[in-house]
Amino acid sequence: MMDKLYLVARIADTRVALRSRSIHSVVTVGTPVEVPGAPPHVAGLFALRSRVFTLIDPHVVVGLSSVPVAPGQRVVVVDVADHGYALLADEIEDVCFIDAPETRITGKLLPGWARVADAMIEHQGHSLLVVDPSHFITLPALKAA
Amino acid sequence: MDDLLNDFLAETAEILAEAGGALVAWEADPADRGQLDAIFRLVHTIKGSSGFLSLPRVTALSHAAEDALDQVRRGNRPATAALVTGVLGIIDRLSQLCAILGQDGIEPAGDDSDVIAALAVPDEAPGKAIEPAETRLRREDDVVVDMQGWRSIRVPLPLLDSVMTGVTDIVLARNEFARMLRESGANPSLIASFDRLSDSIAGMRQSVSQMRMQRIDKLFAPLPRIVRDLAKDLGKKIRFATSGGEVELDREMMENIRDPLIHIVRNAIDHGIEGLDGRVAAGKDVTATISVSARQSGNQIEIEVRDDGRGLSPDALVQKAISARVLSAADARALTPREKLDLIFRPGFSTAAKVTAISGRGVGMDIVKANVEKIGGVVDLRNDEGRGLSVVLRVPMTLTIISGLMVRAAGQYFAIPRGAVREILLETSDSVRVERLGGGEIVTVRGEQFPLLRLETILGRNRDHRDDVDDRALVLVRPGQGQSYALSVAAIHDHEELVIKPAAPMIMATGLYAGTTLPDNGRPVLLLDVQGILAAAAIDASEAGRQMDQAVEAEAAAAAERNAAQLLLFRDIGGRTRGVRLSVIERVEEVPALALFESGGQIQAQIGDDIFPVHAAALPEDQGTLKLLRLHDGQMVLCYPIDAVIDIVRLPELVQPASAPGLVAGIVIVGGEPVELIDPFWLMEQYARGTAAPAGRAPLCRIADDHDGWGDNFLAPILQSAGYRIASGNTGEAADVLLSLSVDGGANAEEGGVPVIRLRSSVAASGPEDETVYRYDRGALLEALRRSIAGGRP
Prior knowledge:
The structure holds 2 protein chains of 2 kinds. By secondary structure, chain A is mainly beta. Chain A is about 10% helix and about 45% strand. Chain A has one domain: CATH 2.40.50.180. In chain A, the strands form 2 sheets. Chain A has a 5-stranded mixed beta sheet. Chain A has a 5-stranded mixed beta sheet with strand order 3-6-7-5-4, with no helix packed on it. Chain B has 6 domains: about 1-150, Four Helix Bundle (Hemerythrin (Met), subunit A), CATH 1.20.120.160; about 155-210; about 215-310 and about 350-395, Heat Shock Protein 90, CATH 3.30.565; about 400-550, CATH 2.40.50.180; about 565-690, no CATH class; about 700-790, Rossmann fold (3-Layer(aba) Sandwich). In chain B, helix 11 (about 250-270) packs antiparallel against helix 16. Classes of the chains: A mainly beta, B alpha+beta.
């Protein structure tokens, strides 16, 4: 049943569902350490249990302007290729079982979202995008250039 | 029992590797008492543990080695090469035994008397014993030290990792707790006991950090032995040096680069270093140098194996690649020089013209590269064709601890690897002069100029308004050999031991950072990549040409070194050690014995299209090849056959001259042995007669009144071999001298102004006024010619 466990959160001003198996944990951060010269979606570094995590601002990834990190803000921690990352979340709502099947995305999404969203899912009368957190780690080639 | 045996085997393998290196070092300097003691302790440890496990062969072997070494320690026995070879033999046998023990679990039966006998004291009276030890020996002490040094347990690496993570978490929790204690205004006794806890946590963190780390010395330990043995097998002389042994590297990494490193060193000895003759011919020191150095550069360890051999020839590599069918001729034309060098990493490529026992083990540079890349490393070649090759392994440290300098810029902290920092100065210091030049900045520190980079500018940040301009500091950074620059930062914080971890790929991709670290305050700090900053700033940080006076000095020193007379030591055909000034040697030739022939009682050698006299009494008896020293006096060449080149040394100032002029000019002492010094002047004198003067300058003789052909048939060849040209017929060219074959012929009148020499047929002169020369008196004739020509051209 782990397959059906989702984290529902508001990321980059959008309610999304994240598959729980792709998530390491949800924690709060203090003030991150800036990384001068890094790509714009890198919001900084922070330490958690002796590991250093790279903070990612999903706003930038989907094409919005960056949002400053508020102390105590919650982040979604993920591991990609042996490196730890944390996605800044506007709000963490719940972890819950969603029995409904994942469906193909209907309608046209903004290019930024189209790249990170895998599917859609119906939850409590609302449609949520199912996103893969690892897609937030890299910027689209166009933006990086 | 099995556990005990495994521990013993693991420990012994380490000891044996270390002992090999220590022995070779001791051989080079037998007076080094510390090395001897260390070797003795190592052997003693093996003996002790093996006795415990009842391994009689191991015990007997180690006992024999211990015994021999102990005699040396007590001054009863000299330290000789034979002894070192004997002990190395024992160490090899022990390694074999341990390998079998590891497989079968029991000690195989066998006889070791051969290697033990090799250690027996030779009958001859001891020649030069080393200095007896001045301190009294206390073996009990040695034993105590050694037991502590080698008591260890083996722990799986993941366990160490989890301990490491745990301790770091404790540190972070402590820091948070400390902050809360301060804020809550706890009473002093509570804070004091917390501080005690805090200190012990710091100590614990230190120990745990070191657990996974090993000095790279361990990796280097077996190398001296390998170099010694291989150089001996191949008849090469090699000086081996390691540096940077204090750099620490993760144990796991170390395991992964051990074999590649050994392979590269073997390659250097086998393929890179030329033979003795090749080195002399190339004008290099006979003793080759191989150096292995480790250096820390941010998050990476750089291990460089450098030799001063022949280097790689890109074109030869291409030829070999084509003949080995790993490359088509069409593809070869499209290769850049860099790609040509990289051919050696192609599978199936071997640089050796023939596969030798040493390098041809089926392991090529392709395997080396694959192994290094597997652990995220890079293999790089720095080729200097004809002068040497450097192979550089760059491997990540993953989890590593470096000493870092914490600096502040744009309101945040950064770390700089302490190893790359040369000096720290305040920007306001009197010895510092900062200037703006054409939009860039340079700083002059005590007469030396450095490009100046401001960290904020490189990072694209503004200066923090809270930073005090007077605090600004300059960090003189030396990112690599021969490069340096000044990095201006807002303030220097402190030094700290830092655990470096790789940063996320997109952060590493900026090229500005070498990793991240977590100091005690729990806030991540970026480690600056001092080399990458240079690339980002796009400046030339090369030190070359910056300090004129130093460059001039170095040039003068090098010139003085070049001017010092050098002596080529060689073994001649008779097995004697002789020497000759290096400067008179043109080159060393290796020729087939058939190139030598006898003519007119003199041995000659044909080399190419030239024929040179050879200083030898008889033709060589054996066929095969022969080595010839080509002595050159500026005009003629004389070949001197030798057996082998031994070395090139500085010519000692003290020469004991020989009693009479001859082949040997005198005796010098080189390395405690008498060496006969060849007199090139005498040698050349023996063969210089009759050598033709260089063509074009040869004086022209005209033979007149030659009625019976004696002049053409008998006289002309002698004159020609003495370096004169003969005018035949009417060449129109004015002769320098006229030889008249008739005592009273009229030739004098028609050739006015040209000296005339008249030859007579009778032995006796007709009177005291007679200036004619008897026609078969060769000496007098040549003398008269010489005088006439000298007189003709004042």
